[in-house]
Amino acid sequence: MYVELEEVCGAPSPFRVLELESDEVVRASETMRVQDRVLYVVSPLDLKDADESYLRAGESTVWATGPCGEAPVQVATGIEDIFTLEVWPEVVLGCEKATGNVVVIDPTGAREPHVVFPAVPNVWGGCGLNWTDFGLLSLEKHDEEFAALRLHPYPTDPWTEVAVPEVVSDPVRIGPSSGAGPGFLGNVLYTFVDEALVLTPEHDLMRIDLADGTMSTLQTAVAGFDASRDGRYLLWQDATVTGGDSEFPEGKVLLRDRSDGSEVLLGETALRLSGGALWWIESGIVQLRLARPINTQRIFFVPGLDFIDLSSQLFLNGQLADGRWLTLNFFFDGHVDAIDLAKNEPTRLFPREASVVHRDDEAVHVVEVPLCCIRGDGREQGSMWRVPLDGSAITKLAERATRAMQQLDDGRILGPIGIGARWLAALVIVEPGTLEELRIDDRVHFYSIDVSRVNDEGIVSYSVADGERSGVYLSKLPTVARTASASSPAPSEAAVGFDVVQGLDGRPVPRLRGMN
């Protein structure tokens, strides 16, 4: 059964705002509204391997329209990402995949894209290394181990000027650790809005002040280091090898609080074993994976540094309102557990294997499918449940759901089900009280569903692959579907944890959920 949608743009929903070919998809994560224009990144799909667990995409184009599809125009080609910056909030920027150029894009199409940051090597799914208060940071690689760290200052007028890069440190280490993420290269380089922390060829840990380029030594004889997201804490490994092997040499690992200079020895291990060791430092814990005892991680409580030992396969998935932590175990089971770290007491929240998709102060929401993506992929579906934290009765929210389902502010569930080989799905809305499943549209691209306007305006955007009907659509949910729930739950918070996702260009991307 289809839901009775409201009008949008003065016409019945679904309303097409941009025509596409049936082998094209718009990326929800790359839809942008600037002034009175909407920009879409459109990717042609490679369907030769339609049964793969992810889609491959060719060279993307950027289209812009009015809010209701007025004056559609192609404004750029070969763009991998579009975005704006705080320094230029009304200026649309794009990353050219082939050249590494960062260009300014005119949403009206009146001007050709202008290169403002030329030839910036892409490090991790974006432009350059990191955007800072002083410009764009990038790496000019010499080889697999060393590179020059460069700063590209913001020009005064991005439409007429071109940034000229300045070398701030050369060389810096970029290997052997190669795990990458936004603003850092794991264990060897971390960047922030006003500083960068780097390792020299001599294994000195240096701080670079991006305001004036001055450098200061934080520590000598460093094999590798980790830094908290605010830069306050450093976790570093002494370069003197005490054990291990050539891939994971062990040494003393110390935690430093840069706010007061205090430092404490946590143990001896290979720091490269500990991805995200300081991810939860703001919640008062450090996760250090140990080489010995094997398969162990030590959880330290800051500031007292008492500790407990857990399996190294156990990942903390976010802290609950009652102080316990959600946990994940990728390789051995997919059960939803909560653990009281102070007592080292785990509790099973849901009796069967499931994936956590949302949480709020009172409950977690799970879908009865395996964890993605070690076993299975994002197409699996199962029932969706609300699991109260106080131990009261578990309630079903939807008979059919996927990991992409979202709970709206009014309590209803929105998302794709029945995802097929081409990642086409039915887009549905579900009433949790009756479990009635109402269809919004068919043959909807999984990657295209944009719910950024749904809670405020009731509007969902997506692309459809269906012959002559193919295109980007807006649908407006009926008023009753947005306001009927008298006792609306608190807005859900996406669970934070590790995912392995596949990008539209086919690259596997291991990612901390909530990390952008």
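Second entry:
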Amino acid sequence: MNIRSVTVLFFLNFFVLISFAQKEEMRGLWVATAKNIDYPVSKYSKPEAQQKEFIELLELCKNVGINAVFVQVRPAADAFYDSPYEPWSEWLTGKQGKTPEPYWDPMKFMIEECKKRDIEFHAWVNPFRAVANINTADIADNHITKRKPEWFFTYDINTYFDPGIPEVREYLLKILEDIVARYDVDGVHFDDYFYPYPVRDAANNIIPVPDETTFKKYGKSFSDVRDWRRDNLNRFIADANKRMKNINPTIKFGIGPSGVWRNKGNDPDGSDTRGLAHYDWLYADVVKWLKNDWIDYVAPQIYWHIGHPSADFATLVQWWDNHTYGKHLYIGQGIYMAAPDAAFSSWKSTKELPNQLRYLRKFKNVDGVIFYKASALKQNPLGYNDSLRTELFAEAAITPKMEWLPELVAIDIANIDEVTTVIVADLQAPPAPSSITSVKVGKFYMLTWKAPRVSGKDFDDPAVSYNIYRFEGLYVGKLTKKSLIKKTTDTHFFINRNRFTLFKKHYTFVITATDKAGNESIVSESHTIRLKKI
């Protein structure tokens, strides 16, 4: 290897080091489709109107700094996508089982529109809820509750899959495999619905879950039905993670449980709270799932204000920060709680949500937030969108990289002085873009580059987006959130000369590539432009 080849390798290693300075933060939004809570506004609207509505929501997300949406594509054993297993959702077409007219596949459309705007798309699935309201639901003839009635129990006004039946769990795993195999989703997400939330009868007694027959058949090795229920969910979560990642090893799988795992009054390792505990009442042991690497992140729904007497936001953020076990933690913030007529005075203040966001950013294991709900973001009753756009999310951020996702061996071939040099880049990231150039187009400069080539041992995982960094002068500085000016899926970018503050001055650009798992490449070669005002 000659001297120039050694020099190239040195600078590549240098840029690997500085590339890690980039800001990473989940800035997500839950988009609920059940009962048309968030989307679409009407189940009777035409596909063209529903498409326009979703695009407008994404434009709002881009405007305020949201970088991921969690869209409820399977709210109640139905589908907002073309499913071979379950009927079209009533909340999409007005009648369960009715195909959209004219035909379109909402999830495919949503994914495509998200990619255009560099927004991650996560398929939000409710695994065990089958009918949301037995008194009002429109149930299609081919709905699974009619084909396999023995798989279900009714609790209060809802019908649920019985998690204790092995065939039920297998059916649900097939649903997940189908989504991951046919759709280019960035992740799959479950919310807080597992076993049903407890309901009291007229005498104020908690109504028991009606799964006695299933327990007698399948739970003989358990003396306590509660431990058996938790084991059913443990099996399902472990299998879901394994089966989905056998299809797509880079898929992100996470849970959005209620904010309280266990209260300290019932468990010394619980939080200093007195709220409904997910472990005790919905039988979901999310902490166990984190410890066993069955999920990639947890997004607890901490929808209380700072200083709440029973479930203080600050107390719960601190508790979850201490119980991540190396996985990502995204705090679920209840932006829908903020309103001029809110029940608690704290939620009437324009300061509550910004203060929550500033507070959670103090913790080393908190990797971002997910807001609930999309309709509240659109209504913006207290004007907090301005705070997001101008201050809290003013500088761009990419979604956090998950270090434990599969490694790729990325090889870039460089011909230097007729000597072929094999450069092994970051084992978890694609190579950098190449052939950076620019050309004047009217009042713009168009910056262009070539996509990197990636060769993996078992599968290919090419770059899905590019990060453009800008520096004043002739040199490349640190890659920070301030120097990041654009994230795009294109291999070109238009630079408006009139938007630069200094003219007749040199600006230097470098570009990195990001793969589907959020792994960022080393930087490209630099490209310098001397801008002149028109």
